[in-house]
Each structure stands twice: as structure tokens, then as C-alpha cells.
Design a protein that fits this description.
Layout lengths: L8 H17 L9 H17 L44 E4 L7 H5 L17 E5 L2 E11 L2 E9 L2 H8 L2
Membrane topology: Peripheral membrane protein
InterPro entries: FliN (IPR012826), FliN-like_C (IPR001543), FliN/MopA/SpaO (IPR051469), FliN_T3SS_HrcQb (IPR001172), SpoA-like_sf (IPR036429)
Family: Belongs to the FliN/MopA/SpaO family.
Amino acid sequence: MTDPNKPDDQNLDDEWAAAMSEQEGDATPSEEEDPWAAAMAEQAAAEEAEGDDAPAADSGTAAQPASDSVFQPLEEGQDKAVPRDLEMIMDIPVKLTVELGRTKLTIKQLLELAQGSVIELEGLAGEPMDILINGYLIAQGEVVVVDDKYGIRITEIITPSERVQKLNR
């Protein structure tokens, strides 16, 4: 190329042809470039060794059965439940909330509230209260007073299927 602003098409074609021929000269595939060929050759060698019922020449390439040290054998009398290590989650804080009841208000009703106003809740008197952990219903209970402090006595633990039904309320 003599002038970069006006490339000669013939010179450009010659340069491309030279570059392509250099790449073609280096195009001898090695095992690194073609891992599939190496894997196929290894598989064929393993199949040949299996067909001869003779041990493979290279023990590193043939599959070997796992020993009892790798996988423990299953026994009939063995307990199926494995004790779980819960120690690592014991110090995680959770938020427990006891819900007395709920209601819906309009903004107008909210602005009309004053000290001494009574808000009617959906829950009935004597009805068990919902116990929520991080916002998820897990149990129900009743209010108790112990040494002038409120508490809650758990009366029922919610099963997973009941939790799904309660979410639809």
C-alpha cells in the first residue's frame, strides 16, 4: 500500500492472501486444539481393552469402581434421617410479630383519627392471634399476662399446607 487514503485493491488482496497462507501453514491440529479427537481416541482404547477382557495398559484412563472409603454402603438397619448440623444457623436473628387483627382504612378515615379513637379490627374477641416470623405465619396463640407483662401462649403450630391457605385470606 502506497497511500493509506487511497488503498490499492490489488495490494490489499495480496496482503490478505499472504496472511491466509501463513495461517494455513500453521494449521496442524494438536490435542490442545482438538480435545474431541483425544477423547474419542481414549474411548476407543478403553473399548478395545474391555473387548479383550484384559486390563488397560494405562490404569489412569480406565474407570475403576469406587471403594467403600468414598461411598459408604447402604444398610437396611441404618437410620434414613441424618442429624442436621443446625449450630451454624442458631445465632441468626428473626423478627417475631403477634398480630391482634387487621383492618382497611381510607385516607380520609386515617386523617380523622385522633387520640382516643377506636379502630374496629377484623379479629373477634377470644380468637387466636397470628404469630409471624419475618412476616410468615407459623403459629397461633392467646395473650397471657405474666408479672404485669404481656406474652403469648402458642396454641397451634401451622402446617405448611395451612400456611398456603392462610396466605389466600
